[in-house]
């Protein structure tokens, strides 16, 4: 079986697995985290399967920039831009990455704890 077929986020992108989608365009999708750690806890993923930041290349510069800007748009739409929010990208074991399909966490709606 191809890796993409086993990947939960690829299956969410393909709408083979249900999720609460809050944004979608041709190259990215945002949906609610199933185990929310904050009143607003969304995940923004590229539609293509990329494991993590290490697997991104120069060809992905535009995608990464558009994803960062989309996070701020989504934060505004969810009413947390003014109160503030945290954007988290976990990479690998020590980064605490569990799902090996690149994603940004967008957390807000209340103070969000962090190690930094
Ligand atoms: P990470 O530790 O950065 O890999 O975080 C993965 C996140 O994906 C966790 O916060 C999980 O709660 C979330 N997650 C796992 N499966 C699903 C799913 N089916 N739908 C939505 N969020 C999920
Ligand atoms: Zn994937």
Verbal overview:
This protein is an alpha+beta fold. It is built from three helices and five strands, in the order H-H-E-E-E-H-E-E. It has a single domain (3-108), classed as HIT-like (HIT family, subunit A), CATH 3.30.428. It has helices at residues 3-6, 8-13, 61-77; strands spanning 21-24, 28-32, 40-46, 85-88, 104-108. It has a five-stranded antiparallel β-sheet, covered by helices on one side. Strand 1 (21-24) and strand 2 form a beta hairpin. The structure holds adenosine monophosphate and zinc ion. Zinc ion binds at residues 4, 7, 9-10, 49, 101.
Observed structural traits:
22% strand, binds zinc ion, HIT family, subunit A, 116 residues, 5-stranded antiparallel β-sheet, binds adenosine monophosphate
Short description:
This protein has 116 residues and is an alpha+beta fold.
CATH topology: HIT family, subunit A
In CATH, what is the homologous superfamily? HIT-like
Are any ligands bound, and if so which? adenosine monophosphate, zinc ion
Please provide the count of β strands: 5
Helix % is 10-25%
Question: What CATH architecture do you see?
Answer: 2-Layer Sandwich
Which outline best applies?
A: globular
**CATH C-level:** Alpha Beta
Strand order of the largest sheet: 1-2-3-5-4
Low confidence ranges: none
The radius of gyration over CA amounts to: 14 Å
Number of structural units classed as domains: 1
Proportion in β-strands: 15-25%
Task: Give the topology.
Layout: H1 3-6, H2 8-13, E1 21-24, E2 28-32, E3 40-46, H3 61-77, E4 85-88, E5 104-108
The structure holds adenosine monophosphate (AMP) and zinc ion.
């Amino acid at each position: 079986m191809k890796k993409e077929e086993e990947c939960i986020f690829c299956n969410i992108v393909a709408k083979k697995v249900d999720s609460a989608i809050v944004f979608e365009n041709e190259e990215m999708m945002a949906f609610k985290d199933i185990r929310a750690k904050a009143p607003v806890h969304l995940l923004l993923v590229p539609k293509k399967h990329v494991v993590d930041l290490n697997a991104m290349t120069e060809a992905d510069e535009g995608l990464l920039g558009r994803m960062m800007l989309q996070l701020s748009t989504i934060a505004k739409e969810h009413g947390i831009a003014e109160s503030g929010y945290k954007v988290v990208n976990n990479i690998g074991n020590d980064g605490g990455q569990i799902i090996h399909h690149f994603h940004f966490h967008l957390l807000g709606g209340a103070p969000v704890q962090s190690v930094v």
